[in-house]
C-alpha cells in the first residue's frame, strides 16, 4: 500500500546535505534517497525542523518528469540608467541657457500595484543659466531627483554622479547631499533600481521597473528658428543581480502553510512559530519530481503531485547556468534508483 498524502499538491524540502551509504539523516536539512526492496518505488528520508520524516513513497513508473532549475535561472537583474547630455542635438552647446531641463522617471507597478493598473512619475528639474557647465548641470539634476525622492516612503532608486571613463566612477547623491560638497568633474547621471523591501511570506520581492526619459528643450538653429529636441540620452544596462534566496524562502513558506501551517500567527502571541530552513541570503537550485497517484476502482484517475527539493549552492559552484554540486548529487542519487544500470 502506498503512503500518499492526498490533499497536498507540492511537498517542499530544503536539503542542506545528501547522506549516502550508512550515514543517517541527523541534522536539519539532511536528506537521503531510498528505494523500496522491490525496486519499484522511491522515497526520501529527511530531517526537518521537527525531526526525521519520510516523504511519500513514489512509484517509479508513475514519475512523469524530473527537472532541475539552476538558481541563476530564477535570479532577477536590476536596471541601471545612464543619462548624458546630447551634445549633437544641442548643436555642441552643452547646456543651452534659459531652458527648463526635465528628467522624467516613469515607475511601473508602484509599491505592489501592477503595471497594467497604475503608473507613477517622479521628476528632476533644472533651470539652466549662462554660466552653467555640463558638470554643474549634472550636479543640479542629480540633486533635484534625489530631493524629489526624499518624500517617498518606499525608496526604489539610488542616484549617482558619474565621472571618469564611461562614467565608471560613481558618487552617490542623496537628499542630504550639498552641492558645495560635489567638487568633481562629472560626466553623467546614473540612476539605479534598488532591491525592494521584502518580508518572508508577506511582502514579495517585487521590483519597481523604471523608464527614464529626458524631456525636450528649444534649440536655436542657424536660420533663426527653434527645434524641440531631447536634451539628453538615457541608456539602460544591467545593474545589481538579485539572488533567488528570497523567492526560495517565500516558496518554502507557502508550501509549509499547505502542509498544515495555514493557521500560523492566529492567536498571536500565543502560537507556536514555524521554523524555516531557507536562508534568504543564499542561492538555491530547485529539483522537481512530478508524479501521480493512481488508485483502484473508483480512484483510478491520476492525482498529479510535485515533490520539490531546494538545494543551496556552495561558493565553489561557479557555473551559474548549471546546478550546483549538491543538487547534481541529489539528482544522480535519484537517477541511480529510477534508472539503474
Distance between the termini: 27 Å
How many domains would you count in the coordinates?
A: 2
Outline the low-pLDDT stretches: 1-6
Helix/strand/pairing category: mainly beta
Rg calculated over all Cα atoms? 28 Å
Secondary-structure element pattern, one letter each: EEEEEEEEEEHEEEEEEEHEEH
Total count of strands: 19
Tell me the helix content: 10-25%
Most strands sheet: 5 strands, mixed
Quote the average pLDDT.
Answer: 88
Number of helices: 3
> How large a portion of the residues is in β-strands, by DSSP E?
35-45%
Outline type: elongated
Give a written overview of the molecule.
With 341 residues, the protein is mainly β. It folds into two domains: 10-73 and 245-338, no CATH class; 76-242, no CATH class. The chain is built from three helices and 19 strands. It has helices at 134-149, 245-261, 325-338; strands spanning 10-14, 17-18, 30-35, 41-48, 51-54, 58-59, 63-69, 76-85, 100-108, 119-127, 157-163, 169-173, 188-193, 209-214, 216-220, 226-230, 232-242, 284-293, 303-312.
